[in-house]
Amino acid sequence: MGAKSKTKQTFSFDIKLGRNLATSITFTFSMVGRCPVMLEKKVETFNMNRVIDEFEEMTRNADQVQKQTLKEILHKNQSAIYLQNFGINGNTTDPEAFKALVPLVTDLDLEPYIKRMVDGDTSPILTALPVPAISLSSGTSQGRPKFIPFTDELMENTLQLFRTAFAFRNRDFPIDDNGRALQFIFSSKQYISKGGVPVGTATTNVYRNPNFKAGMKSIQSLCCSPDEVIFSPDVHQALYCHLLSGILFRDQVQYVFASFAHGLVHAFRTFEQLWEEIVTDIEDGVLSTRITVPSVRTAMTKLLSGPNPELAETIRTKCMSLSNWYGLIPALFPNAKYVYGIMTGSMEPYVKKLRHYAGELPLVSHDYGSSEGWIAANVRPRLSPEEATFAVVPNLGYFEFLPLSETGETEERPPVGLTEVKIGQEYEVVITNYAGLYRYRLGDVVKIVGFYNKTPQLKFICRRNLILSINIDKNTERDLQMSVESAAKRLAEEKIEVIDFSSHVDVKTEPGHYVIYWEISGETEDDVLQDCCNCLDKGFIDAGYMSSRKCKTIGALELKVVERGTFRKVQEHFLGLGSSAGQFKMPRCVKPSNVKVLQILCDNVVSRFFSTAFE
Predict the structure, then answer these.
(1) What ranges make up the beta strands (E) of 507-570?
(2) Residue 452 forms beta bridges with which residues?
(3) 3-state DSSP: the chain helix, strand, coil percent, rounded to 5?
(4) What is the largest CA-CA distance in the chain?
(5) What are 337-348's pLDDT values in tens digits?
(6) Hey, is 182 helix, strand or coil?
(7) Across the strands, what pairs with 545?
(8) Distance from C-alpha of 598 to C-alpha of 513, rounded to nearest angstrom
């Protein structure tokens, strides 16, 4: 409590930006009569060494931290009906007792409970308190979005992970105190469910949280773009303005970020098409007529603040001097230290193009998490995307790992704890968190590659449910990706690249066969694409697939080449369903139930080829 007098008193309090964090916001108020008036809001200076020391301490005691985290989760939600139905009460703290009483579940098992929350049931269903918001997954993995509870604790986890990862990045790639980040972030609209609960994508719930901007400022990650751009209802106008904003702050940009590598590649492909228009805006000091959202137009006009022919000429010269846009990012942003985003798993196909744009700039992989919550931080940021590993943060949730056999099937063995995993083994991740997910199977397959102190370091392998299968064959998203990469080498000989791809299992024909959809950067001869088709077919080395192809119980693989812009239409479809542009991931395996996406792909086929590899 501050100084007191007969006429005025002041007081202050701190809000920590996440559990066990080294930074807080201090609010100072003065009492005028009975009304508090805020005098200042001070964000404590980021202490990199303290954050790293806290992570070191936590990971050295990973087992104890896990037990304490589970205890806190169960205590906080002891009144939850779901837990009480399984005999969990405030006295249950032992992990073995918890696992003996509560079953493993999937999103389908929890869907009825979460639906009640969405519909406005405020009783303690999964959590003791009503959730402030519901997150929507992108829906690209299963063809339908999932509803996921979003709580203040998940927001704290997000800020904690951002700060932890930033501390390790900043140790290896120090950035200027007054620098900015060019962040391609997009906040789609929240809507209010019929039960009165705000619903939005996970990224939207994070960006709209009042602590987000303060948290980003504390780690020197202020966005170049005005808030009006981030919250624009038109994603195309927002992207144009992000690019323009970044260039206006080009000397201050310390790193370039998008949630996914796909978003980064899409942003700079867009720049290739629109750079002359952006330069004209800067030269004349007048915003393009393509920006029609009033709030965005007002904010960007203020940012432009008049003609800047010198900057315009600099950008024009830089663009015209590049060879096939190689090194575009450092040419535009000379003080950038790295490019940052999720580059593993389904994002790996975009790394080659991103590396082309980045030139010599390091590519740093974003951390590992999902719409359900964050799991692990990249504490070795100098590793390339192909080598990237992630250290599990022990207090973000209670983690278990289901062992998988060499065929990718779940073994009969029960899940093991965080510190009990074996190096070289693959597991499915199981999470219990503060937001009402208990022993929840994420569907992610990870491989343990080592330990950071006593917490495991893992690599993301694939989604379990994204599998091409007709009979005894089982090909994962990773298998598809490797097949495409192999076939794309033949295309590269013609100086053509695969822009994007997806797949589908066609069982309407007899026998069923795999269909691969490709969007490519140029035209080539049919014999080249036939070679690619054969290479795709031979690229699936799963024993079940190869034997089925040889005995013709699986038909010849079909390659369908689609028109340029087709995968943009697929993205537009998902955005129309409520997905965030920043959260979007291209579906790699389109299920039969996803009729609209299949229709988009099939309606835009320009050529098709059947494999002769096994004839």
Answers:
(1) 513-520, 558-562
(2) 455
(3) 40, 25, 40
(4) 96
(5) 999 998 987 788
(6) strand
(7) none
(8) 15
C-alpha pair distances (Å), 536 with each of 4, 319, 379, 474, 540: 77, 36, 36, 15, 7
Residue 138 tokens, joined = 């992108």
Question: Distance between CA 389 and CA 273 in Å, rounded?
Answer: 35
Side-chain half-sphere CA neighbours of 523 within 13 A: 2
Mean pLDDT of the chain: 83
> What mean pLDDT comes out for the span 477-482?
83
Q: Give dist(CA 473, CA 194) in Å, integer.
A: 44
- The C-alpha atoms of residue 541 and residue 415 are separated, in whole angstroms, by 29
Reading the block at residue 129, the tokens are: 């308190």
CA dist 38 and 304 (Å) reads 32
Neighbour order of strands in the sheet with 368-370? 368-370, 373-377, 390-392, 455-463, 440-452, 426-432, 398-403, 416-417
With tokens 């034997």, the residue in question is 547
Distances (CA, A) of 379 to 113, 266, 376: 36, 27, 9
User: What pLDDT was estimated at residue 383?
Assistant: 93
- Closest to 437 measured CA to CA, from 396, 409, 403, 475: 396
End-to-end, the C-alpha distance of the chain in Å comes to 83
Of 120, 229, 139, residue with least CA distance to 184: 229
Residue 62 amino acid letter: A
Structure tokens at 175: 């950035």
Dihedral (Cα; 236, 238, 240, 241), 10-degree rounding: 160
Q: How far apart are CA 597 and CA 589, in angstroms?
A: 11
**Separation between Cα atoms, residue 46 and residue 162, nearest integer Å:** 12
Q: In what order do the strands lie in the sheet with 35-43?
A: 9-16, 24-32, 35-43
Name the range with the highest mean pLDDT among 55-59, 116-120, 410-414.
Answer: 55-59
Strands 455-463 and 467-468: unpaired
Q: Dig out the tokens for 243 from the structure.
A: 């690019």
Per DSSP, 389 falls in state -
Residues facing 432 on adjacent strands: 398
Number of neighbours of residue 440 by Cβ within 10 angstroms: 24
H or E stretch at 82? helix 81-85
Residue 572 structure tokens: 């537009």
Q: State how far the Cα of 4 lies from the Cα of 381, in Å rounded to an integer.
A: 49
Whole-number pLDDT of residue 138: 55
pLDDT greater than 50 at residue 245 = yes
Report pLDDT for 113: 87
Q: How many CB atoms lie within 10 A of CB 55?
A: 25
Q: Tell me the two tokens of residue 204.
A: 């939207």
What value does the mean pLDDT take over residues 103-109? 90
Q: Is the peptide bond before 233 cis (omega within 30 degrees of 0)?
A: no
d(CA 306, CA 313): 15
What is the reported pTM? 0.74
- Token readout for 199 is 């619903």
What the block records as the tokens of 52 is 């790293």
Phi/psi of residue 490, each to 5°? Answer: -65, -40
